[in-house]
Structures are given as structure tokens and as C-alpha cells.
Amino acid sequence: MQLTLFAKQRGSPSDSEGGVSKIARRQVINKTNMTSRDRILADVRRNQPPLVAAPDITAWENKAHSAEVLLQTFATVAGNVGGKVVLVDNVDDIKSHLNIPEGGRVLTTLPELLDVADDAALFAGNAPHDLANVDLAILRAEFGVAENSALWLTEKLMGTRVLPFICQHLAFVVNAKDIVPDMHAAYVRTAGTDHGFAAFIAGPSKTADIEQSLVLGAHGPRSLVIFVVLG
Amino acid sequence: MLQICKMKVGLFIPCYVDQFYPKAAIATLELLEKLGVEVDYPAQQTCCGQPMANSGYEHLTGGCNELFVDNFAGYDYVVSPSGSCALHIKEHLHSHDKEEAATGIRNKIYELTEFLTDVLKVEKLDARFPHRVGLHQSCHGQRGLKLAQMTELTAEPYSKPGSLLNMVDGVELVTLNRADECCGFGGTFCVAEEAVSAKMGKDRVADHEKNGAEYITAADLSCLMHMEGILKRQKSNVKVIHIAEILNGVKETVA
Amino acid sequence: MKNHAELSETFNKDEQRVNWHDETLWWVRQKRDKASHLIPDWELLRETASQIKHNVLSNLGNYLEQFEQNAIKNGITVHWAADAKEHNEIVHGLLKKHGITQMVKSKSMLTEECHLNHYLEEQGINVVDSDLGELIVQLAKEPPSHIVLPCIHKKKEEIGDIFHEHLGSAKGEANPQILTETARIHLRNTFLSRRAALTGVNFAVAETGEFVVCTNEGNADMGAHLSDIHIASMGIEKLIPQRKHLSVFLRLLTRSATGQPITTYSSHFKKPRPGQEMHIVLVDNGRSVQLGREDFRNSLKCIRCGACMNTCPVYRRSGGHSYHTAVAGPIGSILAPNLDMKQYSDLPFASTLCGSCSNVCPVKIDIHTQLYKWRQVIVKAGYSDKKKTLAMHGMAKTLASPTAYRLAGKAGRWVIKHTPFAVSNPLNPWYKQREMPEAPKESFGEWYKKNRG
């Protein structure tokens, strides 16, 4: 899309209100030749109401919660949305809970689990379609959110962007101390970090589009286990 | 109870109450008088203008508005046994030359039950109505005047008409499956959208019947008229009664 | 073209089905109540969201430019579409450039609004909707009837028949579990073989140039992450100022929509993956005009949760298709007249103004007040029935004059003559399913004169 110079120069809403400038006049004259971008921006600026400030949301971000309640809430909500929480003392303990079928394809991003699963990093450069037959992905989540049991993963933690969506079953590993109370705390935690892609994931893939009956495993994982590491 | 002497109340009786349900208007008058209020019924009154405004013709309500201002400007309070009409005045009454008077009325118009609870602060009533009663929360009273807590909100429950009914000896309020769903009257909606309107009315009535109501009461007669039309067509034994009649202590024979 | 009243009359011919539709959506409303009541500060959260959106609307020009700059910096190509036609042409142009004839799509009400599927099909492009509900209505050759629950009007047996015909499921199979599995297998092949994916956008962040797509099924991600080219279509009102504001909206959106605490996937797209193209189409299509309508601009705060539909007693008993527009229900009824006042002149009247919609709205749009205001605008613009206008003039005259009102007669006579519901004859719509009230011997006015006068 073309970025015409005069449109770019127009700044605050008040510019368009008091628009006696040469720029504004040129816009009117050139209306027929304007790009859609310029026209939309001009129309928006002409029609938008006077500026009102966004509210301060820091009060939402500063609520205290006890860690025990957080884990309890997290586990309850995870169950409600079709997931399952398993408490483990360390990452190694996870292996005793895994039930991998013969010949099943398992990928992980956790170095501690490389004896039971393949390294997801090995496939990061391949076409994502190569992951279509993954049975289980075991991924580390950066943190979890108690109020909705969502886990935050940046693409680095996914190995490949499509992996947590395309696998048949999914397991997350998160530290108990990395469970934050709510979405406000969650975004405080992600502030200043960068990613190309990231997601909150809560529960297995699901749909209730047919008569509101809940079915797990719509397109993505049919099940989700969250290993919460207590240590 | 607070006895407010010298308080002069102008009684606003909406057109369809005047012409179809005079009993409810009489009960309103008697109840207010019993509670020590000086009530006056301005004889020149007609209507609040809502039938036109809700149909998109608010611009035609000027004459109606001026008449309303002339009739009611001189009172301390304006009270009406209709939440819907009271809300319409509160939100839309304006005057060409007497805007100050119109503003005054907008601020001092009350639906009957809120006048009883908020202004008169009624705490007991001398009335008996030994029946199972379903309270229909008419939408304009409920969500417009906030006569009771709305089920959509996360907030403390209360009910002005409910608390008054609980002061009446023998009243047993039934619990509805849908506490504040619309009955489907909606003014001209009732004929313009006949199919949906009637279906909404049937469903509302069924909720009361299913939960054992002998009477359906409300602070709005338009809703009651709609539901009564359905009950009668279905030859149901359930009756409708305006809340003023219950609060005023309806005689068994009348009911 | 049939209006809302006619279409809902047809819908109401099968009362059992109306009951089923009503109960199903009421159940969703109840789930919403349960979820929202769990948050003690819910009303404050709504107010906060509303204020953020007011800020967005008041500074939209700057936020759009800021978003564009940041998105470009992130490697996303930004397109601007003044209307539906331009949006569709941009999408088609991108596909054409890459020689792509098949595209997978996740839910986007904007593309419904633009009739993109129809347009692309005319250009020889095959489009597959990947949201289960959307796939069902696409196969049935119907538009979605609800913005969140596209096939809420369909019974599982009917869906079974559609799947039997198009996807080869067993005849008579109506188990949702099995039907969903059928769609899963079918769509997995689609996802794996499509080079282009189009998604909607729930929120776009001006501060970072990223956009968020929320789904439960994971279909947006399956499409986007497997495609060479990801196109995201968004209305210009979907912007929010900063990333942290997502917290407010993601808490509200799904609790309001379905009663879930959050959607399964809240995907934050910021940069294309290496080798992939990512495009955003910013669409106006009447939004900047609506922004200029003081009484109606705050309809643009809408985050498309569908709560107003689930709570609407009229929607539940008339079905989404009775609104004959892409976005049905109360919110659709205040958005559609902006696009075409004549065609949608019936919609603001398809309501009792009960106000439940405004109470559930997570961004506090005064929906029922806007319905009332649209009625005034539509009548003034001349899109109302001439006979009704005549009757209203007569009514206004009588009600403005106490003499005329009284002269009109004794108890009940005037009301009987002038209110449409009170005439006792089979031709009157009131009388079809309701009795009329009995006129008493005397009006209250007459009684008062006798007893207090």
C-alpha cells in the first residue's frame, strides 16, 4: 500500500478539526485520487469524538493472592475446561506419568525428557506439515494463569508454531511458582518481552457447535495434561 | 413509617389504565390516601406519549408533552401505577417554553412502588392476600427505573415491589425460572411482531403457572393486559392483578 | 425481501423448535451469568473495558497509524479497504498473485459482512470454512445465524444428514462426538493442503502491531501456521491501545460469550514465521460513518461476544436468520441501519426495548437506547409505513387535547378505536393468540369525578 506523505504528516485529532492547513486543503482537492488509507484516516479523524483518556488499570494489576489458593484455583479451573493437572516434584517425575503407545511420535522442548521424546528443535526448520503425525507434544509453559488455567507459551517454547495445535495430545510443564492470579498479572509478566507468535492455551481443543454438546478434540489436541512442578 | 403531611401528589393514570383497569387506579389512589398523602388527579391528563415515541414518532409528542407539563408542574411528586409510563416521562419529557418545569417533573415522577419504598419509606401495610403470587418484573420498571436488581448484573439482590408484597399478610411469592424475562408486550411490537410477542407472552405465563402462581402481579398493566389476554385465551385459572390492588388490601369478593 | 416480523412468523410455525432454540440459548445465557458472577468486580471490569473503547474511538486515527507502523516493522503487510468490495478484491489479489485457488478460513464475521465467500467463489477460488459451526452452515448453503454459535439453529440430526451427504458420515449418525470427529478428519486434510489461510481478528494492539485471534477449536492456528500466506481481516474498530488492555478484554470476552473463563486458544500473531507472508486488511465499510453518528458511534465498541443475542427474548424466539443481516440480534439491529437504512429499517423495531442486551454487554453499549433512537431516525428518514404515520398523527392530535380525548367517548371507546391491539376481530394480530381486555362500565376519570370530584 502506498503511504502518501501528506497523510502521514497529519497528527492528532485536533489537526483535522482546525484543518486550515495546506495539507487539509490538498486532501479535499485530491479526494478522488486519495488512497483508501488516506480516505479512511481522514474520515475517521473527521468523525471521531474529542479525545477521552484511557482508564488507569494499575489497580487491577496490584491484587495480592496467596500461592496455595492460586494452585488450587488453577487445578480446579483446568479440570473444568477439560484439562488435567498432575503435581510432580521435578521434571524427571513426569516420565512415570507418561503412557506412550508403541511407535508413538513424541516431541518435547524439555532437555530433561529427551530420553523419552524427540527434540522438537530438530524439526523447527522443516515444513510444519511434517508434524502432522505427532501423537504427543510435551512443552514447557512460561507461566500459568489461575483464573482460567491458561498457559502462556511463546513460539520459542513451542518448538514450531503449529506443534501445540497439530499434535493429537498435549502436555505442558509449568512451575508452581509460575502461576499468576489473573490476566492482569499475566500481561504484567509478559511486558517488555518479544515474540513473533505466542498464545494462551487453556484446555484441549474443543467445540460445542453441535447443539451445545461439548466435544473435546475439535481440530487440535484431544487431551491436555498439565504437569505442575512443585519444587 | 414517615407521615408526610402537606405533600401534594399528582396522580398520573395512563390512558389504558384509565379506560381498561380503573380498579388498579382506584387502588392506587386509596392506598396513597391511606398512607396520608394528599392526592390530586388532574382531570385534563391523557397520556405520556410513549405509544408514539416508541414507534419512532417522538417528534409528534410535543403537544402531549406540553399538556403533561401543564397538568403536573404544580405538584411535589407525580406518581403513576405504571413503571413504563413513568420511565418514559423521566427520560423523554421536554417542553418548548417550560423546560424548567419539564425537568422538575422528570426528577419528581415516581412509579408507585418506588414512591412507597423510597419516598414514603413504607415498612408495613395493612393488607391481606392469602395467595401464591408470581411477580412479573416489567422491563421498563426493572431495567429502566431499577425497581429490582437485574439478573444480568453481578450485584446485591433487592426488589422494591417484592419487599412491599412481603408486607402483605398471606402473600406467598413464587420463584420463577426466569426472574426478569420480558413478557413480549412492547407497545406496538405486540401487533407488529405478533408471532414473537405472543410466544414470549405464552412462555412468561407458563413460567408462572409451572411454579404454582394463582395470580400474576406487576407494577405495569400493559404487561398484565398482554398476559391476561393469553391466559384468557388458554382458559387458564391464573389471574392477573395490579400490585396496587394487593397492597391496598383487595377484598376477596373483588378478586 | 421479507422483513423480521414475517421471517419470525415463519420461524414460529414450529413451536417445539422455537422452545428448543430458546432453551438452548437461555442455557448459554445462564452459563454467562454463572461465569460473570464469579468475578466480584465484574461491573467495574465492564466499565473499564467501556472506557478503554471510548478512548479507542476518540483516538482511532492515531491508533490506526501507530498499529500500521508497528505491524510493518514486524514484517506484516498492511492493506486498507474502504468497503466490502475493496476488501474482497485485496484478498483475491493476494491469492491471484500467488496462484492460489484454494483457501481455508477461520471465523470472521467481517468476511460474512463483506460476502467474501460468494465473491471468491465467483472468481473460481474454493473456500473452506474451518470453524465447525461455520463449516456446517457453509455445507448447508446458509449464512451463520449467530456470530459465536453459527449453526445454533440446526439440530444434530440435520447436521448428520448434511455430513452424510457431503462428508460421507454414516446415514442417520447424529452423535455430536462422531460428527465432530468426521469434520476433524476432513478438515485436517484441508489444513494440510491449503497454502492460504484467512482468519478474523479479535483484538489488534496499536502499541505492538500484533493481533489476537481467539478460538476454541484451534482452527485459526491450524490454518495460519500451515499456510504460506496468512491474511487477517479486521474492522478498524478492533484496535486497542496497549497490550496490557488485552487483560481486560480477554477476561470479559468468553465469559460473556459462552461462560468459559477464556477461549482455549488466544493466539498473539506478531510476525510471520520465516518464509511466510502475513497480511492484515483494515476494513472501514461504513465504520467511519458510524463513528460520526453521535448517538450510534459507541456501537463500534462491540467485541462480538454474542451475549446480547443469547439474552434477547426476541432473538431466542425468532432465530438469527430473521434479522437478514450478517450480525443478527440486538447489536446487529443497531449496526445494520448504518449500512443500509432502508433495507434494515425493520430491525430496530424487532425489539421490546426490554434492555437486557445493554446489561449483559461487556463493553456497556447502550443497545436498547440506540434501538429507540434508530426508530426516530428511520421514521424521520421516511422509511416507515405511511398508514402508521397517518395513525400516529391522529393519535398525537387526540392525546394533545383533553377535550378531544374525552369527546372520543366513554370508557374504552377511544382506546378501542385507536390502539391496534384492542379491536376484537380475527383480523387483528392481537386477537390471534390473545383475548382483549374487557372494557369496564366506567373509566377511572369518570369514577373519580363521581367519587372525589
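Chain C touches chain A through 91 residues (CB under 8 Å).
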